[in-house]
Design a protein that fits this description.
The protein is an all-alpha fold. It has one domain: Sodium/glucose cotransporter. The chain is built from 26 helices and two strands. The chain has a two-stranded antiparallel ribbon with strand order 1-2. The radius of gyration is 24 Å and the shape is globular. The termini are far apart.
Length: 608
């Protein structure tokens, strides 16, 4: 990069650190302020922050790799996580259910669901530890992507036995840690808002550049990674690459690492099933933290809607980067070898001086936004659910804040250390989404919908599922993702059900208080019998609207994302159909969900 490019990046970094340090005083009022902003942050700020947090460099690089290698079909692979389809469920019902609990973390929620007895404490401890483990895994994933991206520009050499990518990731993490540790959620969300502007400037420039100056040729070459670590070039056509209608089967060479997606129809159905279970069960870490911090049910819905709308611009950007990567390969007479490096190569080779610095700053913003949110949310589980709950219940706010900052640093160091064992972004992302995450998915789902499930069953399901995921990674590291998901989730299900029926159910009074405040649908008949019929009719009416609205929201989000992609690809026939479908789904959402956002049952009116 030029001196001007470096200057822009340095100014951005100083600005981020300055905003974070400015917010330090607000965040230091206590842990409620540090982790939730005292639940006074506006919905549009939380939604903007959520979008910036989802726009991570690692995810953008792997999503670009799939689009570059597979065309529009690559989008459907990332239904597993990169499309963030869980937002549809958070928007309709999961966001408000979680907000109603009025807790700080998912682990604290376990006490609300299972009570203050032994089963509640066990579930809380297991939830805290499993979330911290997932946080460390996510930091490893972010660090690998950030290292690949930044090392392409800064040319950091290997040192002390560690690669240049490792030191590039370390640089990024240290910079983000400064303002994250200092200012908590206040610093995270307000720096995210500023970073969101940079991200959108980046999106606008790249999309215009690709659309106006680099239309796709009729025939061109792409590249795919091989199982042994090399790469193979393949020829494809514009019509095949831009077709957004997924095929039942792909015909990828068996030597390619992407050949695991040849049973494409089965893979898509598996990903949709996974996301449906995952979305219906809610989420943890930084995403759910935004909903714990929301001011009302209405604002939970609005922040989700805004978050999803902003996030839809990510996919045209990814398509534009892939198109530029194809154009660069065509100019060179051979495709970019590593699909995961298309993003940095494109910015390095096709973006002019000055603009390059702005784009690098924007993508650094994307990386740091995801990282800071994950670290802030992960540290809350140590402070609130382990240290304060069990080690030092009498700790004052000053000591809790000190532990919040130390926990953030330790979690980051552990995540960074694991980067030396992972080869590529897709390796760690596939394991997180389809194996380690699968060990959590069934108990996380069942806690909302099955009254009989107790804290012991939840804890057993989590422990057995995560153990199965780790054993699978060691013993069967290269099996398809749907097999690894099945191993972890079925193991978790068996452990959960067996232990639940071996132990006593949760106290009926605890279950009634939980249902009174959150009011989920599902298998709650013994609890609902204690609620007056008139109130129950209102709860049932809300639940019916939410279930129906979910059938609008899931395809609405997919079609919204695909519409921008079809426009960039100049696939005008399919773009026209997508616009019509999007309008119909939007109307359904408006009449069945949006206009009812302010209508909610008063929890105080529900009495036995």
């Amino acid at each position: 990069m030029s001196v001007l490019d470096y200057s822009i990046v340095v100014i951005y970094i100083l600005g981020m650190v300055g905003v974070g340090l400015y917010m330090q005083k607000k965040a230091s009022a206590g842990i409620d302020s540090y982790f939730l902003g005292n639940r006074k942050i506006p919905w549009w700020v939380l939604g903007s922050s959520g979008m910036a947090s989802n726009f991570d460099v690692s995810g953008t690089m792997i999503n670009t790799a799939f689009i570059f290698a597979l065309g529009a079909s690559g989008f459907f692979i990332e239904i597993r996580g990169g499309v963030t389809l869980i937002m549809a469920f958070l928007m309709i019902f999961q966001g408000k259910w979680n907000r109603r609990a009025e807790v700080m973390t998912l682990a604290e929620w376990m006490k609300f669901r299972f009570g203050e007895g032994r089963q509640g404490h066990l579930a809380r401890l297991i939830a805290a530890l499993s979330t911290i483990i997932m946080t460390i895994a996510m930091i490893t994933y972010f660090a690998i992507g950030s290292g690949k991206f930044i090392s392409e520009f800064l040319g950091i050499p290997a040192f002390a036995g560690f690669s240049g990518q490792f030191w590039a990731a370390t640089l990024m993490i240290v910079l983000a840690m400064i303002y994250t540790v200092a200012s908590g959620l206040y610093g995270v969300v307000w720096t995210d808002v500023f970073q969101g502007f940079l991200i959108f400037m980046t999106i606008a420039f790249i999309c215009i550049l690709a659309f106006v100056y680099y239309p796709l040729p009729e025939v061109f070459q792409i590249s795919m990674p091989l199982r042994d670590g090399g790469f193979m070039a393949m020829e494809t056509t514009r019509s095949a690459w831009t077709d957004i209608i997924p095929k039942w089967q792909l015909n990828i060479d068996a030597a390619s690492a992407y050949s695991i997606y040849n049973m494409f129809g089965i893979a898509i159905m598996f990903y949709l099933l996974k996301v449906t279970i995952e979305g219906s069960g809610g989420t943890s870490q930084y995403m759910i933290q935004r909903f714990f911090a929301a001011r009302s049910d209405r604002e939970s819905g609005l922040l989700s809607l805004f978050w999803t709308f902003l996030l839809s611009f990510r996919w045209p950007f990814i398509v534009a980067i892939a198109m530029l990567g194809i154009a660069f390969g065509t100019q060179q007479g051979m495709p970019i070898e590593d699909p995961e490096k298309v993003l940095p190569v494109v910015i390095n080779q096709l973006v002019p001086i000055g603009i390059k610095g702005l784009l690098v700053a924007g993508l650094m913003a994307a990386a740091m936004s995801t990282f800071d949110s994950t670290v802030n949310a992960g540290a809350a589980y140590w402070v609130k659910d382990i240290y304060q709950a069990y080690l030092n219940p009498q700790a004052d706010e000053k000591k809790l804040l000190w532990h919040s900052r130390i926990a953030s640093i330790i979690i980051v160091l552990l995540g960074l250390g694991f980067t030396v064992f992972i080869k590529n972004i897709n390796e760690i992302w596939g394991w997180i989404t389809s194996s380690l995450g699968a060990g959590l998915i069934i108990p996380t789902f069942a806690r909302w919908y099955w009254w009989r499930m107790n804290g012991y069953g939840y804890s057993a399901g989590i422990l057995v599922g995560m153990a199965a995921a780790v054993i699978q990674k060691i013993m069967l590291p290269h099996i398809p993702e749907y097999y690894s998901f099945t191993i972890a989730s079925v193991s978790s299900l068996v452990g959960m059900v067996v232990v639940t029926y071996m132990t006593q159910p949760t106290d009926k009074n605890i279950l009634f208080e939980f249902y009174r405040k959150t009011r989920p649908f599902g298998l709650w008949k013994p609890v609902r019998e204690g609620i007056p019929g008139q109130i129950m009719e209102k709860i049932n009416a809300e639940n019916r609207r939410d279930i129906l609205s979910t059938f609008f929201a899931v395809p609405w989000q997919i079609v919204l994302f695909l519409t921008g992609m079809a426009f960039l690809m100049r696939n005008w026939v399919q773009f026209g159909w997508l616009v019509v479908i999007l309008a119909a789904l939007s109307a359904g959402l408006y009449f069945n969900w949006y206009r009812y956002l302010s209508d909610e049952v008063d929890a105080d009116s529900i009495k036995k």
